[in-house]
Specification:
alpha/beta; globular; 8 helices
């Protein structure tokens, strides 16, 4: 049997002797918060990361009610924070690493004729470089686990094959195509270490990001939790995450690097 390329020290930080561990980026709301909720309820040890956890009321309440949830500060675009957390968790085996943190980007900076360079760089940094760098930093922790799984939350907006008209938010779509390629390549790189990678379209989930996709500003999307999607029926975060968790359980060497719907069906590239 080929030996693992990663050397991981003896466990320095752990929650319990036998529970599996998941690390989730962007845990403060929406899909990320729901991953934390469901894995915690299933008895997993959860490392919930957020860019500014001090003001994440829902996440703080969840951690207060669940001893198996630990909150860590992590901006996925901050190389020092990524390195510091990887060092802090050195020796901690992470069974599932979920790259959930992402951003949609203001629509007015993505309008044809008004393409904003700074916004483009920001969206690409969060949605593409962030998952790539986080996975690189925590690959040794994942390789040391039993499950050995990495997940990135992408979007069907990143499917080149599905494009039939100009996207309403081109930066978001471009970033999701790019992260698909980044994580496909990562899957091939990590396969020899027994790590399986899943690229997921979570469906149209009722979150602030989906409301932004329907044309609301960030402030409007935050305020309209009961938004009328004009005939479209979104998935609940609970439903999307429950189905993705089932598919994550089945990730293996045969389907690593696949672009999958929340229910396990393959998404066109």
């Amino acid at each position: 049997m080929k030996s693992c390329a990663f050397a991981v020290a003896a466990v320095l930080i752990s929650f319990s002797a036998h529970a599996k561990t998941v690390l989730v980026t962007g845990s403060n709301r929406g899909i990320g918060l729901e991953f934390v909720t469901q894995y915690a309820a299933a008895g997993w040890d959860v490392i919930a990361t957020s860019r500014s956890p001090g003001d994440d009321t829902d996440l703080q309440a969840l951690a207060a009610a669940n001893a198996n949830v630990k909150i860590e500060e992590l901006d996925v675009t901050d190389l020092d924070e990524i390195a510091a957390l990887a060092k802090k968790l050195e020796g901690t085996a992470i069974d599932v690493l979920i790259n959930n943190a992402g951003m949609f980007g203001a629509r007015d900076g993505q309008t044809w004729g008004q393409l904003d360079r700074d916004l483009f760089d920001q969206v690409m940094a969060v949605n593409v470089y962030g998952p790539l760098k986080v996975t690189e930093a925590f690959a040794p922790h994942v390789a040391a686990s039993d499950e050995k799984k990495v997940v990135v939350i992408s979007s069907a907006a990143g499917s080149i094959a599905a494009v039939s008209s100009p996207p309403g938010a081109p930066y978001y779509a471009i970033s999701k195509s790019a992260v698909n390629m980044a994580m496909r390549g990562t899957a091939m790189r990590l396969k020899e270490d027994g790590i399986s990678v899943g690229i997921f379209h979570p469906g149209g989930v009722d979150t602030r990001m989906l409301r932004e996709a329907f044309g609301l500003s960030q402030a409007e999307a935050e305020a309209n939790e009961d938004y009328d999607y004009r005939g479209f029926t979104p998935l609940s975060p609970q439903d999307s995450v429950a189905q993705m968790r089932a598919v994550i359980t089945g990730l293996n060497a045969e389907n690593t690097g696949s672009f999958l719907r929340y229910d396990g069906d393959t998404v066109r590239w």
